[in-house]
Amino acid sequence: MAITIQQKIAALMVEIKDFSDEIVRLLSRKAPTAATSDDATTLNGQTPAAIQAPVDTLINAHAIRTNNAHTLTPEQLNAYTEDELHDITDPLFRVGLLPLSQFGALSSTALAVAYSGMGIVFTGTTPVMIMGKSYSLLAQTLTLAADQLNKTIRVYVTIVNDLPTLTTSETWISENTTRMYIGSVTLNASQIISGTIGKFCKLDNFRLSATAVGAAIPSSTGLPTATGTIPAEWKP
């Protein structure tokens, strides 16, 4: 059945009345009133500073977050990625622009080395740094040759195929960006009888040492709280 024009007008009048009632309801709502104690310097009993304080707390808490709250990427910040940083810094270590070297851990733990027969025995992993690049010398035994008996043999750590390798020489070999002198051993007619391999740190070719080894800077033995002694081998 078709809707007459009168019915359409009646329906429209109902909608207009509903709309009018909603306007009246909204206009009749009371606006919030200030506290009776408020004046020109407070709102609901709080000063502007008191109102601002929790806002500042939220802002500061957000500012110090370190979990990348906005999930920004290096590309968005025009920053270097981790791989790009390695590309920049790794060559500095490889070519010796950071000339720091170390043999053994920087702790009070003794170096894990012993001498047995013709062997230099490293009983544990030894941290090694040569010209700023770190390596690990694994536990192993370096067995000396029979023609090295009755001699003093110098021992080096040499980087071969990017791995620290123990090498020896009867004569002094200069240190460089891939080779570091770590001490010597003395043999009699049948075996090793003494050795000077120990922990050390050095800058470029200079190291502090109580033993006259390599390009070392003389240092005394003893504690900082007591008088030290310069070993006789360092004295002219």
Folded structure, characterized:
- This protein is of the alpha+beta class and 236 residues long.
- The protein has a domain at 100-234: Sandwich (Triple-stranded beta-helix).
- The chain is 24% helix and 28% strand.
- It has four helices and 13 strands.
- It has helices at residues 5-28, 48-63, 74-77, 82-94, and strands spanning 100-103, 113-116, 119-122, 126-130, 133-137, 140-143, 152-160, 163-169, 179-187, 192-195, 200-203, 206-209, 216-218.
- A six-stranded mixed β-sheet has the order 5-4-1-11-12-13, with no helix packed on it. The chain has a four-stranded antiparallel β-sheet with strand order 8-7-9-10, with no helix packed on it. A three-stranded antiparallel β-sheet has the order 2-3-6, with no helix packed on it.
- The mean pLDDT is 78.
SSE map:
Layout: H1 5-28, H2 48-63, H3 74-77, H4 82-94, E1 100-103, E2 113-116, E3 119-122, E4 126-130, E5 133-137, E6 140-143, E7 152-160, E8 163-169, E9 179-187, E10 192-195, E11 200-203, E12 206-209, E13 216-218
Parallel strand pairs: 12-13
Antiparallel strand pairs: 1-4, 1-11, 2-3, 3-6, 4-5, 7-8, 7-9, 9-10, 11-12
Core attributes:
236 residues, 6-stranded mixed sheet, alpha+beta, 4-stranded antiparallel sheet, Triple-stranded beta-helix
- Please tell me what the overall shape is: elongated
Number of strands: 13
Q: Can you list the strand order of the major beta sheet?
A: 5-4-1-11-12-13
Helix and strand pattern:
HHHHEEEEEEEEEEEEE
Q: Calculate the terminal CA-CA distance, rounded to whole Å.
A: 126 Å
CATH level 1 class label of the domain at 100-234: Mainly Beta
* Poorly predicted sequence stretches spanning 5 or more consecutive residues: none
Number of DSSP helical runs: 4
Rg over CA atoms: 40 Å
The average pLDDT score comes to 78
Structural class: alpha+beta
